[in-house]
Predict the structure.
Amino acid sequence: MKLEDFKAGHWQQRYQYKSFEPVPVNHDWVWEDASINVLLEKANRALGELNAFSLIVPDIDLFIQMHVVKEAQSSSRIEGTQTAIDEALLPAEQISPEKRDDWQEVRNYIEAVNSAISQLASTPLSNRLLKHTHELLLQGVRGEHKLPGEFRSSQNWIGGSSLADASFIPPHHEGVVAMMGDLELFWHNDQIEVPHLIRIGLSHYQFETIHPFLDGNGRIGRLLIPLYLVSHGLLNKPSLYLSDFFERNRASYYDALMQVRTNNNVIHWLRFFLNGVAETATRGRDLFREILALRAKVEQDVLGLGKRAPLAREALNVLYRQPIVNAKQLETALEITTPTANALIKALMEKDILVEMTGQQRWRSYVFDPYLKLFLS
């Protein structure tokens, strides 16, 4: 199939509405537009540079968890949640009741991402994995009654309050299983020669168009991108998440997807997608550089703590994963006493590594401020 000749699908008349029925994607793809080649080269180069850091950064897994938190917060924000990164790192009891539903959705996303990535070690990318991830995503939150872990068995829609005023109506539910089966075959079809970034770009569009779940399609569809890249060896670690790029360019993101459905303009979508990969990978590479520079600085700083220096270095390894902590969490993580934890926190505050963030006398929390700020820029 030539990208320039692509026909995305057709509108099928239903009772009082029309659903969009996309064509299968599991086949060869070629193109004449030279800009795709240039953007593909740029994106692959940036992705390779990002992946190089995952191979050379010591203890890379210490830092991946904050990438996951950032992704969870950004992807959920696209869907309307208002949880900030620092709030996502706090325990439930420190979240005000009116914010707890949003907080739980973000925490579910973090759990779902971590679970999906760990499963890739033993399970190939599949609809079964996506269903399990979806089940975790909706556990105990607002979408918990919308068939968590199962493809939909009824019609859904995007935008508007009903089918009558929807901005887009995905395919009829009777075709979802077959369409998702075709998509899964596309991920693993070694009989066709289609670059991986083109495959996952087309796959994200196709997933969002099928909208196979009653809820959570946006988040699962965006998570599909790093899952695919890790599954096929383009990334050794899950360090690339496009939700921040999509959120910052939200109108363009939705418009590019709709351009395919309404005007068959899949080239426009792939340009947008490949630009997003290149920009996000470059930002990720630069973030790793900043993390390494910060790590060198703070480890030099803790050397001045004398006999507390070894324990302070252990504390830093905790803080890279969880940059907001309280004394009790440090006690547990480091297996130390309460007086030792309090003395360690005081020493780290004197080095401007930790900052008290609650302003309270009791139940205080402390933030690894210079590290957390790297993920807020």
In short: The chain has a mean pLDDT of 94. The chain has 15 helices and five strands. The two ends are 41 Å apart (CA to CA).
